[in-house]
Amino acid sequence: MATFLTATDSSAAIERVIREASASLTLISAFVFPRIVHLQRLQDAGESGVEITILFGKKPMDKGVFRDLRELPNMRLYFLKELHAKCYFNELEGVVTSLNLLGGSERNNREMGVLLRANEDAEAYAAMCKEARSIIRIADLIHSTVPDRELEVPRKEWGERARSITTTLDAEGDALSDIEKLRREHPRAYLRWTPEEDALILEMLDKGMARLAISEVLQRQPSAIVSRIRRLRP
To answer: What are the start-end ranges of the H helices in 104-221?
Structure first.
């Protein structure tokens, strides 16, 4: 039957959920700043073939955290601004809690939660998984390291089409020196958007391409891709 969890209990249960995942792992947290041990467990899980889904919300993730997470193998990272839920589960058990995936939450806040087991709390566990899938469906896929052979060929084609698009600079004056620095990493930064690029963005989104991957194909800043998507699909 369901088990009540204190803040410390919830933290320990979340680590166990990550550690004992053997096929799939879903981490839903409005704010994400995992402890080192969580990152190590996630690395182990991804390398062993566990398919990892991480969903965060509210605001952009800390750059250092994003840099660590984007290197995890077999992982999909989603964002939903309206997210407030916190839920962590594998194929055996799940934790529904007020605790965010933040290193100091259990030390600094009064938290509580409930542990659900797939075999003993089948109905509640299934309802939790169903609601999590519903939330993920409306979230934006930011980054993926899950191998997707269906996208390998079209990605090369999209890259070739993007490189063939000619346009003009969308800046002038003192901004030019800053732009040149950005272009060392994003060669098409601050070039005017073209209908061809807009069509490419929509095509890649429809095929399930993550936003960071779209940024790499179009050689533009991730923030520029986010802004353009909001304009194309308000």
So the answer is: 105-108, 122-137, 149-163, 175-182, 195-206, 211-218
Show contacts of 13-16: CB within 8 Å, 24+ apart.
13/88, 13/93, 13/95, 13/113, 13/115, 14/38, 14/88, 14/95, 14/97, 14/99, 14/101, 15/41, 16/93
Residues 126, 158, single domain; the answer is no
Final residue of a structural domain among 110, 144, 178: 144
Contact 142, 72 (CB under 8 A): no
Q: What is the pLDDT of residues 159-193, one digit of tens each?
A: 888 888 887 776 555 555 667 777 778 888 888 89
Q: What is the pLDDT of residues 11-34, one digit of tens each?
A: 999 999 999 999 999 999 999 998
Residue identified by tokens 């909001």 is 230
pLDDT digits (tens, 9 = 90+) for 25-67: 999 999 999 888 899 999 999 999 999 999 999 988 888 899 8
pTM: 0.79
Residue 71 structural domain: 3-144
Residues 119 and 43 both lie in one domain:
yes
Q: What span, in angstroms and rounded, lies between the C-alpha atoms of 197 and 114?
A: 47
Alpha helices in the chain (DSSP H): 7-19, 36-47, 63-69, 105-108, 122-137, 149-163, 175-182, 195-206, 211-218, 222-232
Identify the domain boundary among 144, 168, 200: 144
